[in-house]
Amino acid sequence: LEAPDLLSFHLPDNTLGQLKVGVSNLTSRADLIENTDLNIELAAKQQLADTNGFKRHDDLLLGFGAAGDKNSNWYLSGTLESDTPVLLAKGVIPAPILGVAINDQYMAILANEGRPVVYFYDLANLYAPALVNRFDNPLSLPISEIFLADDNWIGVGNNTLFSAAIRGSNVQTISLGAGVADDDADADGVAILYSDRLEFRKHQQLEQVAQTFRLSLLEPKSATISGSRLLMRSATEIEILNFTALKSGNQNRTFIGKAILNQDDAALSGELLAVLNKSAQRLSIYDVNQIAQTLTLTPLSGVRTTSVSSLQQLGFNADLLE
């Protein structure tokens, strides 16, 4: 007891969220007074500046900045030994960068040079990525997003898939039909989100729909692969699928559950869900549990950060929220 109405104590270890504090002068605790006004929250800190977007692959983080004087910077950082990104390499693209992609062998940078073009770098030397190809896009294909799969790249734009070898020039074009809401990819293939369904296409056979899952989610906005799971969200709901089961065609095990949740963005890592709510100026972490086909979301902690309303991208990998 420091003074009247002032009590100090050590915070308990491994504790997040609401903290119950009790005070009693008696061993019987008959005069116990409890208070639940305190909350233990996670604190965020700025790790990188001049970052317009990023992609992570294991312990490698590829970020890019806004265009200035018609040039854009890119940064390759590592987090193998620390959560704090360590700069490995950096470079400049003579155009605004639209997006990036990275895997074990390569990184790719999608830039707007009046038409989308793609720069490909070999990552054999992480401290000096070597430019090995540039897709000039002479036909002005409307590529708005890129992914990497081994030695190939996949582009998406205007309800169309584009695929080619990283060190090649011949591009395969595949029409997806109208209504594509979002897309994501992993080592096995590409997930395409529509208003009423989710399609999975294998990298080796992108022209064929390998699996289809019908949605109960209304007006879906995004689909994000997180390991063996896939998170879909609308403005008012989230839905989680067993992505491994979907890819293998096991429809009975594909649907995990859904929950009503107002949010502007969300990211999944294991049993944890990060949720962005701009109107409430809040970034929160929930524990996700399943009861039948309903998800229960238990608040664990808020995340103390500045300018929540300006956050444009969430990434949640293992225990690292970015």
Question: In short, what is this structure?
Answer:
By secondary structure, this protein is mainly beta. 2% of the residues lie in helices and 52% in strands.
Question: Your description of this structure?
Answer:
- The protein is mainly beta.
- It is 2% helix and 52% strand.
- The protein has one helix and 29 strands.
- The chain has one helix spanning 243-248; strands at 17-23, 33-40, 42-43, 53-57, 60-64, 72-78, 86-93, 97-102, 106-112, 116-122, 130-135, 145-149, 152-157, 160-165, 172-175, 182-185, 189-193, 197-202, 211-214, 222-226, 229-233, 237-242, 255-260, 265-269, 272-277, 282-291, 294-304, 316-317, 320-321.
- The strands form eight sheets. A five-stranded mixed β-sheet has the order 3-27-26-25-24, with no helix packed on it. A four-stranded antiparallel β-sheet has the order 4-5-6-7, with no helix packed on it.
- The protein is globular and about 80 Å long.
- The mean pLDDT is 89.
